[in-house]
């Protein structure tokens, strides 16, 4: 499920949104079904994150790829973006 706060609230340029997937999903299944050659290419890309790159879930790969994989420790949202997303989400929960 992909949801864009940016479009709904007119905060274009911020690119705020959420992605939600089930623990058992087709993306992880597809990653496991790739050929050995493709697996080796993916291993090479994500080997800086863990000694076992084949165990990295799809959603964690998205986070790593949101910045350069080498800068994974800085990936994700900044504090102002997190606060704005929380306010947008709370607006939808208000009963008025």
Give a written overview of the molecule.
The protein has a two-stranded antiparallel ribbon with strand order 1-2. By secondary structure, it is mostly helical. The chain is 49% helix and 6% strand. It has helices at 5-9, 26-33, 36-46, 58-65, 79-93; strands at residues 2-4, 17-19. The two termini are 26 Å apart. It is built from five helices and two strands. The protein folds into two domains: 1-16 and 78-96, no CATH class; 25-76, no CATH class.
Give the key terms:
96 residues; mainly alpha; 2 domains; 49% helix; elongated
Q: Please list the strands of the largest sheet in the order they lie side by side.
A: 1-2
Strand content: 5-15%
Spatial extent as radius of gyration: 17 Å
Span of the ends, CA to CA: 26 Å
Mean pLDDT: 83
Number of domains: 2
Number of strands: 2
Largest sheet: 2 strands, antiparallel
- Uncertain spans: none
DSSP summary: helix tally: 5
- Shape label: elongated
What topology does this entry show?
Elements lengths: L1 E3 H5 L7 E3 L6 H8 L2 H11 L11 H8 L13 H15 L3
Antiparallel strand pairs: 1-2
In short:
It is built from five helices and two strands; from the N terminus they run E-H-E-H-H-H-H.
């Amino acid at each position: 499920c992909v949801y864009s706060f940016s479009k709904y609230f007119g905060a274009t340029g911020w690119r705020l949104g959420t992605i939600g997937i089930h623990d058992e999903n087709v993306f992880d299944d597809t990653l496991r079904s790739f050929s050995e050659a493709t697996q080796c290419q993916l291993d090479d890309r994500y080997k800086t994150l863990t000694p076992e790159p084949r165990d990295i879930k799809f959603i964690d790969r998205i986070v790593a790829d949101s910045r350069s994989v080498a800068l994974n420790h800085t990936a994700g949202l900044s504090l102002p973006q997190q606060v704005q997303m929380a306010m947008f989400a709370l607006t939808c929960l208000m009963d008025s």
